[in-house]
Design a protein that fits this description.
The longest helix is centred in the N-terminal third of the chain and has 50 residues. The chain is of the alpha+beta class. The strands form 2 sheets. Strands 1-2-3-4-5 form a 5-stranded antiparallel sheet, covered by helices on one side. Strands 6-7-8 form a 3-stranded antiparallel sheet, covered by helices on one side. 35% of the residues lie in helices and 38% in strands.
Length: 144
């Protein structure tokens, strides 16, 4: 019998390659299907962090006795707890009470600004990933 020169792939080898390729395509699609909810979850985490920060700031501003001259990167006021400063420090907004302590309120920031308009405090922040958020908080001025 005459032997044929066997160059190329057999049907079995081609089927194995097709099976491997199909599995890789399925895994790639699964990855992109999984990536979107995870990315959305991280953005929702910032929204939750912002809500907690907003509640904390509003609680601090409930009964303010005196407001010191505000700056764009810090806001100082006096309450029954003492002199409280909200300050941009490195990549966070922190709270200081009577010049002491270091309580991070909001972290991973590219920039943050404070603006006082009458009895309202406006805080504008930008996260390092580019998400911007802005909030206006009522300042409860109380007489001593």
């Amino acid at each position: 019998m005459k032997r044929i020169d066997e160059k190329g792939f057999s049907l079995f080898e081609s089927m194995i390659h097709l099976l491997i390729f199909t599995i890789l395509i399925q895994l790639t699609l699964l990855f992109f299907h999984w990536k979107e909810p995870v990315q959305s979850s991280y953005q929702n985490d910032f929204l939750s962090e912002w809500e907690v920060f907003s509640l904390e700031v509003q609680e601090l501003l409930k009964e303010v006795h005196v407001i010191e001259q505000p700056r764009t990167t810090s806001f100082t006021f006096h309450t029954e707890r003492g002199r409280i400063t909200l300050q941009v420090y490195q990549q966070m907004i922190r709270k200081l009470v009577n010049g002491e302590g270091h309580v991070p309120l909001l972290v991973d920031l590219r920039s943050a600004n404070f603006l006082v308009e009458g009895n309202r405090l406006k805080i504008m922040v930008e996260k390092t990933n580019g998400i911007k958020k802005e909030g206006t908080f009522a300042i409860g001025i109380s007489s001593q």
